Amino acid sequence: MCPVIEMNKSLQSILLFFTLISCVDAIFFDTGRLEDLPLVIDGHITDLPGPYTVQVSSSFDIDAKVSTRIAENVKRITISDNVGTVEDLVPQGEGVYKTASIQGVVGRVYTLQVELNNGKVYESFADTLLHAGNLDSIYYELNETGNGLYATSSGWGFDVLANANSGLASTNAFLWTTKGTFQVDTHPELVNQAKSKCYVQDNNQCSFVPPCSGLYNTGTSRSPNYAQVKPCSCCTCWYDLYNGRLVLSDNSFRHGASRFQAVPVYRVPVSPLLLMHKMYVHVTMLTLSQQSYRFWKVIKNQQEAVGSIFQPITGKIATQFKQISGSPTPVTGIFYAAGARQLRMVITRDMVVPTSLFTPIPLGGTDLSCFDLYPNATNVKPDFWVD
Question: Between 12-20 and 290-305, two packed helices, what is the crossing angle to 10 degrees?
Answer without folding.
Answer: 110
